[in-house]
Write a structure and sequence with these properties.
mainly alpha, 1 helix
């Protein structure tokens, strides 16, 4: 038969384990919240970097198109000069 003192001691042990479990869970929650915040900040930084890279890509594509038009204009001018030189030879 279990005495009252043994029952009390057993109950006290359970309460101590519950308290320790609560402390452990609070610590884990705090750590997870910090990890979540770091992940959120990382995501924001990645989104900002993505937006920056998209803007840079748009700029570079526009610059490429401008350069392409200039090169085409130069090639057209060279072609015109070659035609004028050929007709001058005749």
């Amino acid at each position: 038969m279990v005495s009252g003192l043994e029952k009390y001691s057993h109950l006290e042990d359970k309460i101590h384990r519950i308290v320790e479990l609560c402390k452990s869970l609070r610590l884990e929650k705090t750590q997870l919240e910090a990890e979540l915040e770091r992940a959120r900040l990382g995501l924001i930084a990645e989104q900002e970097e993505k937006a920056r890279l998209r803007a840079q890509l748009a700029f570079l594509l526009d610059d490429r198109d401008g350069m392409k038009l200039k090169v085409e204009a130069i090639l057209d001018a060279i072609t015109m000069l070659e035609l004028e030189a050929d007709s001058a030879k005749k």
